[in-house]
Amino acid sequence: MQRVFITGLGAVSSIVSGRDKFWQALLAGQSGLRPLARVDSTDLACTIGGEVGDLDLDLLQQQLGERVDVRRVDWATRFALAAAREALLDAGLLTNEPNERGGVILGAGLSGMDTLQEQTERLLEKGPRRVSVFTIPALMPNASPANVALAFQLLGPCYTVSTACASSGNAMIDALETIRRGELDFVVTGGTESSLTRLGISSFCNMKAMNVHANDDPSRSMRPFDKDRQGFVMSEGAGILVFESEAHLQRRRAKAYAEVLGFGSTSDGHHLVQPDPQGRGATRAIRQAFERAGVSPADVADRIYVNAHGTSTPFNDAMETLALKNVFGASARQLRISSTKSMTGHVIGASCGLEMIACALALRDGVLPPTINYATPDPECDLDYVPNVAREATVDYALNNSFGFGGHNVSLLIRRGV
Fold first, then answer.
1. Nearest CA to 326 among 261, 269, 383, 408?
2. Can you give the pTM of this predicted structure?
3. How many beta carbons lie within 10 A of that of residue 132, not counting itself?
4. pLDDT tens digits for 69-80?
């Protein structure tokens, strides 16, 4: 069975785009949440979010050439194209040559919602003849990986995985297993999301999942694990990684950020949108990741960084804390945990991709990003959440948790690259 490594990283986020700038912003505790500019929020309960504001579409078109037209695709695809290009360039795999041994497996939770909103409004206001001929190619769930494969001539398997907020985690599991089976040399994976629309925001607000009480203070709206947390704030972006086989990596004599060791994927079977308060599905997913990796949780508790799902909702943060205690036992007190959603906002299907980038860079640099806005301890959330300030800490492992509506639980375990 092939060993699999992370060899390229690409980030588009509401804080800032570009892998290195994104990482430095996380370490500085910068928030990407602000009043909405692209969305008419006049009558919305939540008027803030994490919009990407620095993507130069003209430059992106120049970089991509003529195979794709960035003006005729959804924002989610634009984010994926920009981040995938950066990841392939970082890995040293950006070429114009067709490659049958390279694939694209991406996650998306609510793909194409910008296009859906725009074209539905056009249909209602101007009639059916004014609906764009590019509507279906733009909003279809597979649009992002299809355009990435087209732009970079990756001819292997190409598809979308959709498991709500766990989407990019499940996509990375598929990428890992495909390479381990020897089917591909590398896979462009992770996730992309652009669901900051009036429809998306209204739906989450009416479900009582969004924080509607922080419109005047957006940078402090996400408060994971804090007693006064009041829900998440939606964001957009893409976190794209290159997973590569050891054999291919060695032939190229290239670098690796981390090795992907194990994964867990479970279902709660409890409730469609609320996590099991006992964290049984999340606990099993975390345990599976360690079991598949052949690593004892207690043995590495003092050498591991946990990037939590950490959505700043009362249900999730308490459940995730309990799940970590279930797996690590008394050694859970040694864990260093943070939620980078406190800065990025909740990027739905792209969350796990961006957070895996944070995990890989934490292993490389020996610095852990903080959980910002942590002020009031919660008795139900009583572990070390690296509050407010980044921390130097040499760690050998990183655990990335993602839990999605539908009861989907994903945990991924990686080890510092060798």
1. 383
2. 0.97
3. 13
4. 999 999 999 999
